[in-house]
Amino acid sequence: MSTPLTARIIEEYASAARALPSAGAAADRRRAAIKALTAQGLPTSRDENWKYASLRALERLRFAPASSSATATTARVQPADLPAAVRGCARYVFVDGVFAPALSPRTDSGAAIVTQIAAVSAAQPPLATAASADQHSGDERFLALNEAFATDGAAIRVAAATGGAGAVPIELLFVASADGQAGASYPRVELHLDAGASLTLIERHLSVGSDNSFVNSAVTVELARGATLHHYRLQELGARAILFDTLTAALAQDASCHLHGISTGAQAARSTIRVRLAGEGAKLAMAIAGLGDRQQVNDTFALVEHLAPRTRTTQTFRGIAAGRARVAFNGKIVVAKNAAGTDSQQSLRGLLAGAEAEIDVRPQLEIYTDEVRCSHGATVGKLDDDMLFYLLARGLDRDTAQRLLKWAFLADVVAKITLPALRRDIEARLPGALQDVTLRELL
Amino acid sequence: MTAMLSIRNLSATVDGKQILKGLTLEVGAGQVHAIMGPNGSGKSTLAHVLAGRPGYEITSGTVTYQGQDLLALAPEERARAGVFLGFQYPVEIPGVNNVYLLKAALNAVRKQHGLAEVDAFEFLTLVRDKMKLMRIEDSFLSRGVNEGFSGGEKKRNEILQMLVLEPKLAILDETDSGLDIDALKVVAAGVNSLRSPERACVLVTHYQRLLEYVVPDFVHVLIDGRIAKSGDRTLALELEKRGYDWVSGEAA
């Protein structure tokens, strides 16, 4: 598919690749990815699953990485620019996709082994190569874009806990600092949990310096038998940033993935999620909040595939669109032929908080077997007048009352955050951020 | 003495339908007034109009509260000025914490009076004290507003809010409905604890049962949008015996 955009990506790739080593597994992966991208091109708004994403913004952006060396990045970002680390977490900071050791305090991540992807020896194959996996409905083309250009990232491998010494929670802080017209940022995470291992991972994206960065991130997750992951994704990029992110996860037998997403930033954010419940009894709990104000676009496409018997999914989405924002969530659940006993529950709700705002929540079910329990609910509404009047009748001003109700609307997602330090941090940032911290701690 | 609340010739419509038809009522400080009447006579409409609920159109009349035009104030301004509506059907607001709402409401009133925000520790002591009176369990604090509450719990929660906010004028809309006798006594004790020479209370009720425990100074019968008869507490007893038809018959 040769479009002017694809042609430009290939051209930028050719000049960027000259500066990188041409041998080794990483180089092979880059070449395979650009080949796939050349063949497929990037999605267009004519693609069913991409009609809400801001694809036209890509025409203004540069695809070559903004930087490939740590020295260049640390000059742009100072430790004081970063939010306080979440208590009890080992923090790794990346600036424009490149590991920044100077910003990453020496930390002990316990049973987890965190490796800088750029430092992986040429002989050692990358942990996950998602681009080589089958391309279901072609929704992972931005993943291929990441694989073609990414030069660094975090590879995390967690062994099963022995004697109670589990992995310390890990916070990956991805800072976007480059101007989107100067170059892109390609954050990358390759996570593997061994059988029976568990990990809490915070993946956080924010802007320092330029607020108009172009970020294309990719996270691949492999959970071996019985592994448990709590994955928190916080998207707080600057007001003019453009983000495309792709998360792919594969769960083996009895593995369990708790995926929490809170996306509030960026001018346009598109999140593509694909979870494969490949082993019997694998479990996914997904709770995502997407917020838009002004002219923000916040679009999520989540594909969950039940590929084995007795696999379970709960999917919760809460979206709020204010101003002239557009918020969309497309939750597709596929139950394969041999996935008898599947249980999936979708609860997708949107709140319209502006006369010119738009919300689209869309549950989709494709079931190829009997003996399944699949329920879904999707609603879009406005703030409840009775609730609003109740709060006003107690003396709260209108603005506070509305913020509080928006807060309450998100409660189903926020309540699922089980890491207390993180939950407090998030509660302080959300639109109804007036819940009294002191008071709560007294209770 | 000027009345705390003076309603004159008040008429109001809902969806074009005339509900209140020239209602006049004076409530003085220190007084408890009971408003009784059959279903559909306009009791709840009166309570909602006084609290400023949207959806009602005032077609004539005035309401003066402590010398100011009550109808000109927004609902939140009325609340901060000391008007409290105890809802007949308190709404559930999952995700908004009970204690948070109580504190925000109290601080809104305090701000109105130029006071600083209440100290968190003092506040909790106050709330726990009032909760004891209303026989509300501690776990209530961390729950969502009215979330999963039984009918009786919701009503006790309304009275708890009233006790914390200490309004000048309490309008209780059928607070007694759906209560068993024990809960009724608890609610009545709460209302009585707030009786004082500088406060007033309007009890909207269907039955005279509540009035055995909260003894009113005046009883009014509301029929077809206006006060058809007024009297002292014995009027409630007579109504119980003879029914509202007796008053309607007399008024006609």
Rg over alpha carbons of chain B: 18 Å
Instruction: Report the portion of residues of chain B in β strands.
Output: 25-35%
Low-confidence stretches of chain B: none
Content-based structural category of chain A: alpha/beta
Give a written overview of the molecule.
The complex is a heterodimer of chains A (443) and B (252). With 443 residues, chain A is of the alpha/beta class. Chain A folds into two domains: 4-279, no CATH class; 386-443, no CATH class. Chain A is built from eight helices and 20 strands. Chain A has helices at 4-17, 25-40, 70-76, 141-149, 385-392, 398-414, 420-427, 437-442, and strands at 90-95, 98-99, 112-116, 154-158, 170-176, 184-185, 188-193, 198-207, 214-223, 228-236, 242-251, 256-263, 268-277, 283-292, 297-306, 312-322, 326-335, 343-353, 358-367, 373-381. Chain A has a ten-stranded mixed beta sheet. In chain A, strands 3, 4, 6, 7, 9, 11, 13, 15, 17 and 19 form a ten-stranded mixed beta sheet that branches. Chain A is globular. Residues 126-133 and 432-443 of chain A have low confidence and may be disordered. Chain B is an alpha/beta fold. Helices cover 36% and strands 29% of the residues of chain B. Chain B is built from eight helices and twelve strands. In chain B, the strands form three sheets. Chain B has a six-stranded mixed beta sheet, with helices on both faces. The longest helix of chain B has 15 residues, at 98-112. The radius of gyration of chain B is 18 Å and the shape is globular. Chain B starts with a strand and ends with a helix. Chains A and B meet through helix 5, helix 6 and helix 8 of A and helix 2, strand 7, helix 3, helix 4 and strand 8 of B.
